[in-house]
From TrEMBL:
<dbReference type="InterPro" id="IPR006094">
    <property type="entry name" value="Oxid_FAD_bind_N"/>
</dbReference>
<dbReference type="InterPro" id="IPR012951">
    <property type="entry name" value="BBE"/>
</dbReference>
<dbReference type="InterPro" id="IPR016166">
    <property type="entry name" value="FAD-bd_PCMH"/>
</dbReference>
<dbReference type="GO" id="GO:0016491">
    <property type="term" value="F:oxidoreductase activity"/>
</dbReference>
<comment type="similarity">
    <text>Belongs to the oxygen-dependent FAD-linked oxidoreductase family.</text>
</comment>
<protein>
    <recommendedName>
        <fullName>FAD-binding PCMH-type domain-containing protein</fullName>
    </recommendedName>
</protein>
<dbReference type="Pfam" id="PF08031">
    <property type="entry name" value="BBE"/>
</dbReference>
<keyword id="KW-0274">FAD</keyword>
<dbReference type="InterPro" id="IPR036318">
    <property type="entry name" value="FAD-bd_PCMH-like_sf"/>
</dbReference>
<feature type="domain" description="FAD-binding PCMH-type">
    <location>
        <begin position="1"/>
        <end position="101"/>
    </location>
</feature>
<keyword id="KW-0285">Flavoprotein</keyword>
<dbReference type="InterPro" id="IPR050416">
    <property type="entry name" value="FAD-linked_Oxidoreductase"/>
</dbReference>
<dbReference type="Pfam" id="PF01565">
    <property type="entry name" value="FAD_binding_4"/>
</dbReference>
<dbReference type="InterPro" id="IPR016169">
    <property type="entry name" value="FAD-bd_PCMH_sub2"/>
</dbReference>
<dbReference type="GO" id="GO:0071949">
    <property type="term" value="F:FAD binding"/>
</dbReference>
<keyword id="KW-0560">Oxidoreductase</keyword>
Length: 344
C-alpha cells in the first residue's frame, strides 16, 4: 500500500478478492496516518487495530536512508512505528495482513434524543459482553430538524449472519429508532455510510478521551454536550475497543492501552464561510468535562499540539522506550510536526 493511499483505496482493492484488513470508518482518511498511531475501526474486535495487522513498512529516515522495518529487519523501528505516529520518518509503503471477509452485517440506527439515557444504558450492557465479531460505535449526530440524534453503528464480521441479526435486533429494542438500516454488504461498501463525515474545506477541532466503560456519569456528560451541538457538522463518536485488539500484549507494540475501553472522539467542525463561533470551544469544554471520568492520556492520533502533557500517559510504560527510539532515528527532531508530539 502506498504511503498516500486512503482507506477507501485499501478496502476497495480488498473487496475485489473478498479480503479485508482493519481500517478506520471514513474512506477519505489516509491509511498510513491512521495506522501509525493505532487505527481504531469496526473490525478491531475480530482482527485488532490497523497497527496490529501491519507486517512491514518502508521508511525514509531523517538522514535520508530508505529502510524496511519489519520483525526481521530493524525490529525496533517496526515496534516504534506501530503506535508512535509519524515521528520516525516518512513511510512510503506499508504491507498489511489480509483476512477473508466477503460480507459483513453493518449499518446505522438513529434514535430520538429523548431516549439517549435508555439507549446508552443498553449500549453499555451489550458492549461489555459482545463477541469479538461485533464492534459497535455509538454517539450523537446533528439533526437539522431538531435535537441531535443518538446513533448506533454495529458491524458484525462473523460467518454466522444469523447470530449477527440477533445482535442487531437487540440493539433495535433499546429504543424506538426513527431509522434503522442494517444489511449484509461487502466491507468496502459498508464504510460508505461515513462518506459524508468529512467535508472538504471544513475547519475541525478534534478532542479525545478514553473511558474504561460508559458510566452513568459519562453518559450524562456526553448527552449534555450533545444537547449543545450547534454546528451541522459537529458530532460525538464512541469507538468500541475489545476482543482481538485487547489481547495484544502492551509491550508488543508502542500503542499504549490494551484493555477494553471506549475511545470518545469529540468533533467540533464548521464551514469555512462561518466564523469559529464557539464550535472549537465546545469540543474543548466537552473534553474537559469528561476528564475526571476518563483514563489517563488519550488516543495519540487525536491529541492536539497544545496537549503535550497527555502524551506520556497515553503510552504508559512504553513511553520511555518510544522516546529512546525517537532519539535514535530522528535525533535532530526533523519530524517535529508529527502527531503525537514526543519530548526529545
Amino acid at each position: 500500500v502506498g504511503g498516500g493511499a486512503h482507506i477507501g483505496d485499501v478496502s476497495g482493492a480488498g473487496q475485489q478478492h473478498g479480503l479485508a484488513t482493519p481500517t478506520g470508518t471514513v474512506r477519505a482518511v489516509g491509511m498510513a496516518g491512521l495506522t501509525l498511531a493505532g487505527g481504531y475501526g469496526p473490525l478491531c474486535g475480530r482482527y485488532g487495530l490497523a497497527v496490529d495487522n501491519l507486517l512491514r513498512a518502508d521508511v525514509v529516515l531523517a538522514d535520508g536512508r530508505l529502510v524496511t522495518a519489519s520483525p526481521d529487519g530493524d525490529a525496533e523501528l517496526f515496534w516504534a512505528l506501530r503506535g508512535g505516529g509519524g515521528n520516525f520518518g516518512v513511510v512510503t509503503s506499508l504491507t498489511y495482513r489480509l483476512h477473508e471477509l466477503p460480507t459483513v452485517l453493518a449499518g446505522m440506527m438513529l434514535f430520538p434524543f429523548a431516549q439517549a439515557a435508555t439507549v446508552l444504558t443498553g449500549y453499555r450492557e451489550i458492549v461489555a459482553t459482545t463477541a469479538d465479531e461485533a464492534t459497535i460505535m455509538a454517539g450523537f449526530l446533528p439533526n437539522p430538524d431538531g435535537p441531535p440524534l443518538v446513533f448506533l453503528c454495529p458491524m458484525w464480521s462473523g460467518a454466522d449472519l444469523t447470530e449477527g441479526e440477533r445482535l442487531i435486533a437487540g440493539l433495535e429494542r433499546l429504543g424506538n429508532p426513527v431509522m434503522s438500516q442494517v444489511a449484509a454488504t461487502p466491507y468496502h461498501d459498508a464504510l460508505s455510510m461515513f462518506d459524508g463525515a468529512m467535508r472538504e474545506g471544513n475547519h475541525y477541532r478534534l478532542r479525545t478521551r478514553w473511558l474504561s466503560h460508559l458510566s452513568e456519569a459519562a453518559a450524562e456528560e456526553l448527552t449534555d454536550a450533545a444537547a449543545q451541538i450547534a454546528s451541522p457538522y459537529s458530532a460525538i463518536s464512541m469507538h468500541h475497543f475489545h476482543g482481538a485488539a485487547a489481547r495484544v500484549g502492551q509491550a508488543e507494540t508502542a500503542f499504549g492501552l490494551r484493555t477494553d475501553h471506549l475511545l470518545v472522539e469529540i468533533i467540533g467542525a464548521w464551514a469555512p464561510e462561518d466564523a469559529e463561533a464557539g464550535y472549537g470551544d465546545w469540543a474543548d469544554q466537552t473534553s474537559q468535562r469528561l476528564a475526571p471520568l476518563a483514563l489517563p492520556g488519550g488516543y495519540p492520533n487525536l491529541l492536539g499540539a497544545d496537549e503535550p502533557g497527555r502524551v506520556p500517559p497515553s503510552y504508559g510504560p512504553n513511553y520511555e522506550r518510544l522516546v529512546s527510539a525517537k532519539c535514535r532515528y530522528d535525533p535532530d527532531n526533523i519530524f517535529a510536526s508529527a502527531v503525537p508530539t514526543l519530548a526529545v
